[in-house]
Every structure is written in structure tokens, then in C-alpha cells.
Specification:
The chain is mainly alpha-helical and about 230 residues long. It has one domain. It is built from 10 helices and no strands. The two termini are about 40 Å apart.
Length: about 230
């Protein structure tokens, strides 16, 4: 009974996903945050993988296989979650904060509250879940694209063999680390964006301030969390 009293309020906003309107907001958030950034992420990942392998193989004398193994370790554990989170903060945190700040300034949030619509379930949950899911997907896409870019640049004509051998270079622990860090970064950035957007004053000039604050605080949170993760792992 005590556990139910403690944990039930934490999951109560998730019950709003049963409503079609809330699910539409969630799907739109995933689309705008994840789908629209997918091509950019793939392009950056492919180029990044080629650059890393070129430096390791050309300047430091690493073999192609060693370079790809090191790229897989760095890409999935560190680079991809961090870079995907930075792109997500730059593209989406400011948009979410501006949207909520505009609703706050124009009195839309007050009207939703008066109509009895739960603000947490309708405004916060779909945006936090959408950005978190998108960050997980973008981080994984970026890591795979980087691995593919490194294989293309390093292997040349033997790229097919290197792609087939991806499973030998990756481990389940690396993939799970990538997804877990992306989920953590996405949740932190989205929660801060919602908080900043809902805390604005009554003036229109507060909207761009909320946008810039969400980016600064989101980036700060991502780097602090990454640093704490590194300390915890070490």
C-alpha cells in the first residue's frame, strides 16, 4: 500500500497516453525531433567515422581493423550519445521551450488548466518521451553511420567484408551503453526544456530568453551527466 502511494503519482501522467490526442502529440514530437534530423545525423556520423579512421590509420599507424574496433568503442560509448544529444538540444530543446513559453504568455496553459486538462499528461509527458525516444534512435543511427563511414574509408574495396564483420567489433555492452546514455541525455534535456518554457514571465520578450536558456541548460546538463557517468564507470 505504501509503495502504491509513493510510486503511483510518478506514473499517473503516463496514463494520459491512453488518449488519442496525447498520442498524436507524442508521435509528432518523435517525428519532428527524430525523423527530420535523421539525414543530418547519418551524414555527420558517416563523415565522423571516416575522419576518425583516417587519423588513426594515417597519422598514428593503427591497422584498419584496430581503427574500426577503436571507433566502435568510442562511437557507441562516448561520441554518438553525446553528439546526438547536442544536436537534439540545439534543434529541439529551443523549439519545445519556445512553444511552451508562447502558450504560457498567451494564456493557453491557463485555459487548459481551467478546462481540467492535466498539463503533465498533455504537455510534458509526450514531449519528454518523444525527445527521449528520438535521442535514443539518433544516437544509434549516428554510431552505425560512423562505423559504416570508417569502414568505407578504411577498407575501400573490402568494405563488404568489414560490414559483415561488424558483429565481431561490437559488443552488447557497447550498444546498451549507447542507448542508456542517449535516454539519460534526452530525458534531461527535454525535462529542462519543459521546465524553462513553463517558467517564463508574462511578457513576449521572455520567449526568446526561454529558448536560449533551454539550450544553455540542456548542454550543461548533458556534459555534467556525461562527466558523472564517466566517474561512475571508472
Amino acid at each position: 500500500m505504501l509503495l502504491r502511494r509513493v510510486f503511483l503519482p510518478l506514473f499517473r501522467p503516463l496514463a494520459g497516453l491512453q488518449r488519442a490526442a496525447v498520442r498524436r502529440v507524442l508521435l509528432k514530437q518523435i517525428y519532428f525531433t527524430g525523423n527530420e534530423a535523421a539525414f543530418l545525423i547519418l551524414l555527420i556520423g558517416f563523415a565522423l567515422g571516416g575522419i576518425v579512421v583516417a587519423m588513426l590509420h594515417g597519422q598514428y599507424g593503427q591497422s584498419q581493423e584496430s581503427s574500426l574496433r577503436l571507433l566502435a568503442s568510442l562511437g557507441f560509448r562516448e561520441i554518438s550519445p553525446l553528439l546526438a544529444a547536442i544536436i537534439l538540444v540545439a534543434r529541439s530543446s529551443s523549439a519545445v521551450a519556445s512553444e511552451l513559453a508562447t502558450m504560457q504568455v498567451h494564456g493557453e496553459i491557463r485555459s487548459l488548466y481551467r478546462m481540467g486538462i492535466p498539463l503533465g499528461a498533455y504537455l510534458i509527458v509526450p514531449r519528454v518521451l518523444g525527445m527521449t525516444i528520438a535521442c535514443i534512435g539518433l544516437s544509434f543511427y549516428l554510431a552505425v553511420a560512423a562505423q559504416l563511414g570508417g569502414a568505407v574509408l578504411g577498407a575501400g574495396a573490402d568494405v563488404t567484408y568489414q560490414v559483415i564483420e561488424f558483429d565481431r567489433m561490437l559488443s552488447l555492452e557497447q550498444v546498451l551503453t549507447c542507448l542508456a546514455k542517449a535516454a539519460l541525455f534526452g530525458a534531461a534535456a527535454s525535462l529542462l526544456a519543459c521546465y524553462v518554457g513553463l517558467r517564463v514571465g508574462p511578457y513576449v520578450t521572455d520567449i526568446p530568453k526561454a529558448s536560449s536558456r533551454s539550450v544553455v541548460r540542456g548542454l550543461s546538463a548533458v556534459f555534467v551527466l556525461d562527466f558523472m557517468w564517466s566517474l561512475w564507470i571508472s
